[in-house]
Amino acid sequence: MQRPLHPLFVSLLLASVYGSHSLGHQLDDGGEAPQWGQLKGKNLSQPVLPADFHRENTVTNDWIADGEEDEDYLDLEKVLGEDDDYIDIVDAAPPTDPAASAASALLLFPGKSRIQRLNVLNAQFAFDLYRALKEQASASDNVFLAPVGISVAMGMISLGLRGRTHEQVHAALHFTDFVNASSKYELATVHNLFRKLTHRLFRRNFGYTLRSVNDLYVQQQFPVRDDFRTQVRQYYFAEVQVADFSDPAFISKTNHHISKLTKGLIRDALENIDPTTQMMVLNCIYFKGSWVNKFPVEMTHNHNFRLNEREVVKVPMMQTKGAFLVASDQELDCDILQLEYVGGISMLVVVPHKLSGMKALEAQLTPQVVERWQKSMTNRTREVLLPKFKLEKDYNLVEALRSAGVTALFDRNSNMTGISDQRVTIDLFKHRGTITVNEEGTQAAAVTTVGFMPLSTQARFSVDRPFLFLVYEQRTGCLLFMGRVANPAKS
Ligand SMILES: *[C@@H]1O[C@H](CO)[C@@H](O)[C@H](O)[C@H]1NC(C)=O
Ligand SMILES: *[C@@H]1O[C@H](CO)[C@@H](O)[C@H](O)[C@H]1NC(C)=O
Ligand SMILES: *[C@@H]1O[C@H](CO)[C@@H](O)[C@H](O)[C@H]1NC(C)=O
Ligand SMILES: *[C@@H]1O[C@H](CO)[C@@H](O)[C@H](O)[C@H]1NC(C)=O
């Protein structure tokens, strides 16, 4: 009997609202009321958009429903061929200060393609942002983010930034380090690479479903510069669309669009948008992959998961046996397991030996550390015990981005003159994601179950205490998702 196969659903919504007075005021404390940027003579009772407005006017028409052919409008081989410039000379001087971790991430550049190099630095930024986010959370909270969505959105926004605001965003995102690493690289290289990355990740069928949409909505009277529109389309496949944020039909239409995109995983993404909002960026990622080594459903049983020194919870623990890449890091005192999805995406599960070891691990997580793990992995037969989990997180990233060094963007004096001559500020950077990790895939499970024998504890990789997970696309080295499961019984 065949049952539908749904081993993993991941989705992300990342929304930035640009506006002098946006949703941020209702959702977030401490938002300051901007003094300028109000639209003059704005008529809040605009006529309702025609029902098919967004279908007709959305570039994300190119979102492909399951089963439909992915239509290529780029010559992918040519595009990726241009990236095979492994011999690019890295000009950057070796780091003199070992604490300058972004600089030492440059040591990972030789032998890597440009996209992989950019992804090394994207991961560096993701780890910085992760640390900022988990500082705001308690140690017992789960954490989940989709770094590639954030980097892509920041890359897109940065097209419209100027002056110090631009410099700061590029420095914090490590784009500056990238450009500085070779005399062959310039600013446009970064945007070109995001274009290729977007194409490589989201527009091809490699046996998993990974889709992303960038939408940029602009209030009707807001004057957006033409060159910004053109570049956003050219590099990020995004379209600047006219919208009326005060129109409930716009919100329901957008929510419907996001819900459809995420297969119903994210509903009511937008609630009420402040009608004075001027610009909003939406970035959605949806991932569905199936494990190479599936977890037979009948092997899932309740097991103890240790939350901390005092507390234990019983959670449904999936179980399977097979050949896995594993490593043990003596220095960071943790074990690493790689779980593969069909099609070249993998999840690294990182489990500190000691319950108290999570803090040190989080503090020292860098692209170099991850590469060290990947290089030291060996192929072993393991019985794997992994809790089922489902995380749903909704962040306003403004504070975390500030802690990660992006401050000017959210200042009243931010220079966004590349987007519009009218002054604007960003007060909401919405990042919402969900991930479900389970064993489903009963069809293959029957096969896996044959010969399943529990092994001795040495051959067991038991994820029975708080752990980190990192989901990478292997060919581009892109960090797609990362998170911490402190308690699988919570979301
Ligand atoms: C606002 O728009 C509505 C609908 O288009 C129109 O009936 C109304 O007269 C407008 N009000 C102003 C103040 O322009
Ligand atoms: C760029 O690289 C040069 C040479 O390696 C270095 O001296 C300089 O400080 C770097 N600049 C920035 C902004 O990182
Ligand atoms: C923005 O930056 C540009 C380029 O550095 C500068 O010419 C312009 O005066 C700045 N505008 C504002 C409003 O800060
Ligand atoms: C590990 O070894 C098994 C059996 O030798 C092989 O089938 C599998 O492809 C290997 N896996 C990896 C990731 O190298």
Which helices and strands appear, and what pairs or packs with what?
Elements: E1 8-19, H1 24-27, H2 53-57, H3 76-81, H4 101-105, H5 114-136, E2 143-145, H6 147-158, H7 163-172, H8 175-180, H9 187-202, E3 209-219, H10 226-236, E4 239-243, H11 248-261, E5 277-289, E6 301-306, E7 312-329, E8 334-341, E9 345-352, H12 358-364, H13 367-375, E10 378-387, E11 389-396, H14 398-403, E12 426-437, H15 442-449, E13 460-462, E14 467-473, E15 478-485
Helix pairs in contact: 5-6
GO biological process, one term: blood coagulation
Keywords: Signal
GO molecular function: serine-type endopeptidase inhibitor activity
How would you characterize the overall build of this protein?
- Keywords: Signal.
- The protein is α+β, with helices and mostly antiparallel strands and 491 residues long.
- The protein folds into two domains: 8-61 and 73-91 and 104-290 and 391-437, Antithrombin, subunit I, domain 2 (Antithrombin, Chain I, domain 2, 2-Layer Sandwich), CATH 3.30.497.10; 297-390 and 446-485, Roll (Alpha-1-antitrypsin, domain 1).
- Helix content is 29%, strand content 27%.
- The protein contains 15 helices and 15 strands.
- The chain has helices at residues 24-27, 53-57, 76-81, 101-105, 114-136, 147-158, 163-172, 175-180, 187-202, 226-236, 248-261, 358-364, 367-375, 398-403, 442-449; strands at residues 8-19, 143-145, 209-219, 239-243, 277-289, 301-306, 312-329, 334-341, 345-352, 378-387, 389-396, 426-437, 460-462, 467-473, 478-485.
- Mean pLDDT is 77; it is low at 1-12, 15-74 and 441-457.
- Bound molecules: 2-acetamido-2-deoxy-beta-D-glucopyranose (4 copies).
- The site of one 2-acetamido-2-deoxy-beta-D-glucopyranose (NAG) has 4 residues, from loops.
- One 2-acetamido-2-deoxy-beta-D-glucopyranose binds next to loops.
